[in-house]
Design a protein that fits this description.
Layout lengths: L5 H6 L12 E5 L2 H4 L12 H8 L16 H15 L3 E5 L2 H4 L10 H16 L3 E7 L5 H5 L8 H16 L5 E6 L1 H8 L15 H24 L6 E7 L2 E4 L5 H11 L5 H4 L7 H13 L12 H7 L6 E4 L3 E6 L14 H4 L1 E4 L17 H14 L4 E5 L12 H19 L5 E7 L18 E3 L8 E3 L1 H12 L9 H5 L2 H5 L2 H14 L1
Parallel strand pairs: 1-2, 1-11, 2-3, 3-4, 4-5, 5-7, 6-8, 7-10, 10-11
Antiparallel strand pairs: 8-9, 12-13
Helix pairs in contact: 4-6, 8-10, 9-10, 16-17, 17-18
The protein binds ligand GBH.
Ligand GBH binds next to α9.
Length: 519
């Protein structure tokens, strides 16, 4: 019984199992994935609406998010379940075109503005802090048609949108995330070309997008700083998707470090490093590779000194979405590294491999490796010093309607265990944790086949009934108890975990011992 606890038992002599008082528990969602009401009350069209309606075949079972979990109408229930869980914060996103139908601030759609205002008020009334993501991938089509993230004017356009949001909500919202997973926007929207706007351009677009999105974030930050900070307090950052990268063998350590800088550093170094701008190792590799391809200059667009200063320091903490870990090894002679989103593998000549001792939820592209979240945060601290980290997403997918999701509860247990080790052993300043997701929702290309909710949503029911899963009871218990001690570990939540039995606990306990010895 409770074999999964072995790792923590190993370390309990040096860590107490309580979360520090400043640590906050929350859950996250995104507008397109839950709201529905895709054209309700004057909402304009964005690039995911367009993708869904013009390329239904791209989504499993041709699913759409036209209704999704219907949170546009059922938001009161979302607040109710957030309260039931005892959440301290709820991270949700705003749909740009619900507020500005064509993307520009000329017309503010009152119904859209009211929708989020009501949601914020209802959360606050229950003592739940609202955390807003301004952009979770829904670019207004008009802006896309003018080049989207590849057009440098987007920096100002995004700034104008951010200004509208501050004007509407900054009196009540104290934590803001500008962009969700900028690296996914640039690498899945371009590069891989599998997400909206479905533009597969691997050489320039992902890097131009990368630069513009950092500048757009910085613009939103500077607007707050110059126009609102004298009256309002708020902390602003962005949420990055941080896959941890391990070397496949000891010879690949240098490559792994390069890959971390390329995948993670490109979206963090510009804010947190001493000098700003791109990570130097990335600059070097991009120049070398671009020249080899026959270009005169690097395909990575340079930052001017002014731009470096503009961007540097514009993150008051770092939002970390952690799901998975991969290993990297050098490509063998003649082996094509292909395009692997997030690592720019062609430039690095690296191949990603899944960790041998990983296990899986429903999603086979997200190997589960709880130690990765701790290693990622230790790396961030080593690179950038004592920054505050808010875990803005972490979650587990299942495939069907299933209320007894002990495997999901077990997933959260194991990741929270690693978070505790980060805090207590590595002294990382982790200020909170958001479960992805509060409720089942539209999982992008996977449609409704992959479910991440603590609450199940019945998508066949016109009323989209929400029902708590075992993992919801488990999480609520942890939040109430603020500890990973035995209280929440009764058989109801965890003991039935099938996954645990499939993972090699002896191995992972050994890894723990090793990693502790290194500290
Ligand atoms: C997060 O991204 C998102 O922020 C959230 O909206 C989403 O629901 C959640 O993850 C769960 O997936 O294999 O080529 O289809 C996490 C990073 C990046 C993981 C894209 C899945 C799919 C690429 N995601 N990736 S592909």
């Amino acid at each position: 019984m409770f074999r999964h606890r072995s790792s923590l038992v190993q370390v309990s002599w040096c860590v107490d199992l309580k979360f520090p008082p400043k640590f906050k528990f929350g859950a996250a969602t995104a507008s397109y994935q839950i709201e529905g009401g895709w054209n309700a009350d004057g909402k304009g069209e964005h690039i995911w609406d367009r993708l869904i309606h013009t390329h239904p075949e791209k989504i499993q079972e041709n699913a759409t998010a036209d209704v999704a979990a219907d949170s546009y109408h059922k938001w009161r229930e979302d607040v109710k379940i957030a309260k039931e869980l005892g959440l301290q914060f709820y991270r949700f996103s705003i749909s740009w075109t619900r507020i500005l139908p064509d993307g520009f601030p000329k017309n503010i759609n009152k119904a859209g503005a009211k929708y989020y205002s009501d949601l914020i008020n209802a959360l606050l009334a229950e003592g739940i802090e609202p955390i807003i993501t301004m952009y979770h991938w829904e670019l207004p089509v008009k802006i896309q048609d003018m080049g989207g993230w590849a057009n440098p004017l987007i920096v100002d356009w995004f700034g104008d949108y951010a200004r509208v949001l501050y004007s509407l909500y900054v009196d009540r919202v104290k934590t803001w995330l500008t962009v969700n997973e900028a690296n996914v926007v640039c690498d899945c929207g371009y590069n891989a070309g599998i997400y909206a706007p479905l533009i597969k351009e691997t050489e320039f677009a992902p890097y131009i997008c990368n630069k513009n999105i950092l500048l757009a974030h910085a613009k939103a930050y500077r607007i707050f700083e110059h126009e609102f900070r004298h009256r309002y307090y708020a902390r602003i950052s962005l949420a990055n998707n941080l896959m941890w990268i391990e070397p496949y063998s000891p010879e690949d350590s240098e490559l792994a470090e390069l890959a971390r800088n390329h995948a993670v550093g490109r979206y963090a170094y510009p804010f947190f490093s001493k000098n700003g701008g791109w990570p130097p190792s990335t600059e070097k590799v991009m120049l070398k590779y671009s020249r080899k391809q026959g270009y005169n200059e690097s395909r990575l667009p340079a930052f001017t000194e002014e731009e470096k200063i503009f961007v540097k320091g514009t993150a008051d903490f770092l939002g970390v979405n952690y799901y998975t870990t991969n290993m990297i090894r050098s490509a063998k002679p003649g082996e094509d590294p292909g395009i692997w989103f997030l690592t720019g593998a062609p430039e690095l000549n690296g191949i990603l491999e899944q960790p041998p001792n990983a296990y899986y939820g429903h999603s086979k592209i997200l190997p589960i490796y709880p130690e990765g979240i701790r290693k990622q945060m230790a790396w961030l601290k080593e690179q950038y010093g004592d920054i505050d980290i808010l875990i803005t997403e972490n979650g587990y997918s299942t495939s069907n309607y299933q209320l007894e999701d002990y495997d999901r509860a077990d997933f959260y247990y194991k990741h929270l265990e690693q978070v505790l080790l980060s805090i207590k052993v590595d002294n990382v300043s982790v200020i909170g944790f958001a479960a992805w997701s509060l409720l089942d929702n539209f999982e992008w290309l996977a449609g409704y086949t992959s479910k991440f909710g603590l609450y199940e949503v019945d998508f066949e029911d016109p009323d989209r009934k929400r029902t708590p899963r075992a993992s919801a009871h488990f999480y609520a218990c942890v939040i109430k108890n603020r500890s990973l001690n035995d209280t929440c570990l009764n058989k109801k939540f965890i003991a039935g975990s099938l996954h645990y039995k499939r993972t090699n606990s002896a191995d992972s306990a050994q890894n723990y011992r090793k990693s502790l010895m290194r500290l």
